[in-house]
Amino acid sequence: MIRQLRVIGIAALALGAASAAHAQQPRMSTSEGGVFLDFGPSYIDYKDIASADQCRMLCIQDARCKVWRYVSGQAPADYGTARRVCVLGDRPVQRRTTPGTWATSGEVK
């Protein structure tokens, strides 16, 4: 009986450790070059962001963020005045386009 309790206790400790490790998993995000993800209104826009990687990290660090989009300084003139902008959203992706290398987007998984 005592041996069974020890085995159960060890199994419970292992299960608790596995649950704690799962709860502490870092957030991950895709990064798709040349992809413009449209997700409706953003909840925050960062200006003068140096790279898509920096934008991705801003999203990963923000618990609310589910999807992000980075527009580089190489966006065509018909895109508008927003350049080097990181846009974070908390809604699902509505549309995906592939305008060229000036856009990079990702989703938090």
Structure description:
Helix content is about 30%, strand content about 25%. With about 110 residues, it is α+β, with helices and mostly antiparallel strands. It has a single domain (about 30-105), classed as Hepatocyte Growth Factor (3-Layer(bba) Sandwich). Strands 1-7-4-5-3 form a five-stranded antiparallel sheet, covered by helices on one side. It starts with a helix and ends with a strand.
Please summarize what this structure is.
It is built from 2 helices and 7 strands; from the N terminus they run αβββαββββ. The protein is of the alpha+beta class and 109 residues long.
The main sheet orders its strands as: 1-7-4-5-3
The fraction of residues in strands falls at 15-25%
**CATH C-level class:** Alpha Beta
Distance between the termini: 44 Å
Low-confidence stretches: 1-15
Q: Return the CATH topology.
A: Hepatocyte Growth Factor
Indicate the CATH architecture: 3-Layer(bba) Sandwich
Count of individual domains: 1
**Count of individual helical segments:** 2
**H and E order:** HEEEHEEEE
- CATH fourth-tier homologous superfamily: Hepatocyte Growth Factor
Biggest sheet, open or closed, and with what strands and sense? 5 strands, antiparallel
**Number of distinct beta strands:** 7
Radius of gyration: 20 Å
| Helix content range | 25-40%
Mean pLDDT: 83
Write down the overall geometry. Answer: globular
- How does the helix and strand content classify structurally? alpha+beta
Sequence-ordered SSE layout with sheet pairings:
Blueprint: H1 2-23, E1 32-33, E2 36-38, E3 44-47, H2 52-61, E4 67-71, E5 85-89, E6 95-97, E7 103-107
Antiparallel strand pairs: 1-7, 2-6, 3-5, 4-5, 4-7
